[in-house]
Amino acid sequence: MNTDKPEQAADQGATERGRGDPTAAETLEGTLMLVGDTIAQAASRVHEFHRAIADIPFKAVGTATISASKPVEMVHNEITDLVYGAVRETGKGLFSGAAWVVRQANQSLSSPQIIDEALGGELMEQVARVPVPGIPGDTTGKRVAAISSAINGVFGDHLAATRNPMEVKMGLYAHGQLVGTTQEELMQQFPQATRHLVVFVHGLCCNEDSWNLYMDPARPETRPYAVRLEEDFALTALHLRYNTGRTIEANARQFKRLLNKLVRNWPVAVDGVTLVGHSMGGLVSRALVEMIDHDDLILRRAIRDVVCLGSPHDGAPLARLAAAGEQLFNRFELSKPLGRVLGVRSRGIRDLKDGLGPLKTHDGHDVMFHLIGSSIGDSTGSWLPNTVGDGLVTVKSALADDTGRAQRLAFSHKHHMNLLNDPEVYLELQMVMRQHLRQRVE
């Protein structure tokens, strides 16, 4: 995993800028900035493709005429460089300028709500038309959050590095509301605070609403895990929202600071913390535990279990395929622009190529890992679990290796997203909680 300074700067910047959903003005500003950057990148890729194609006949003619065609090639290259440069800079400049105007207008107004109202009409009407499947209680705000989370998964490292307002800010949520971090805020938000916390951590391109994906009001057993656990046990369920385009290590590091602050300021003494992560969320949760050292006494004592649902501990096939495609295309001049297109994927996606490997908890970590995988086929078949798995992660990768302190379980006939909300998976979560808490009796 990468630990260079730009990622650390972005990590610090995310903390300094605060948390919560962006206003309509910030959403528009961030979108304009991203569109400008995208136009610049697209123009560069088309320019490179043009030059790669043009180089083929020029090289052939140059060889035949002993470089007599060189002046023509130079003129051609100068003209194309000028044209594509103008397209790239004009496109980026136009949208960056528009973003600057929105930012200045937002800062100059006495109340940000004024520009929200001014932009809310047309902007929100456009957002309302975007098809975003699987959002229970569908609202414009949830659509904006879902779209933003998807964009962050693909371009999140770029959004963080450029301080784009569209970057998802890390925060904890409960019942759809952002959770405070000070003792006063927490006492006000959780007057009935419990001593055990369960934190759900979503996967790539998702947010906390993903855990409701398969909820059916007619089937009580499909209610979200968080709701059912709070009904069955004396615990408090929270959801983490984060920028999945950043590296797993950077998100784990920031999550550790946030969780440490939460436990310190929680209204009552915390007896235990359980982390439940889906896909990339499981890797972020695992990385947090593995980076706990002797200075993190509170978290060291508090974290009891980490549940990983379909997490690619040994990497994901699609991520490896994208990496191999980028490497292959970059070997040939004509296909290099296509390789650079594949190279645009975020560092968070790149981290999924190899995963985290074998479990590496240090001596003295009293944490039990629960590794859960699934296969879209029957478990009796040998090739489906090991080649296709749940459609995105193989069973072998989801269960990691045989090292570490872990319980392992594989389901059949479930795809990757089923693990977010499934009655059988909930029974396993119940089992994990029974090890520490007495189940409530109606």
Automatic annotation (TrEMBL):
Domain GPI inositol-deacylase PGAP1-like alpha/beta, which positions?
244-319
Q: Which stretches does the entry tag as region Disordered? A: 1-23
Ranges annotated as biased composition (Basic and acidic residues): 1-20
InterPro entries attached to this UniProt entry: AB_hydrolase_fold, PGAP1-ab_dom-like
Q: Which residues form the signal peptide?
A: none
Q: Which PANTHER family does the record match to this protein?
A: SLL1969 PROTEIN
Per its record, how is this protein called by name?
GPI inositol-deacylase
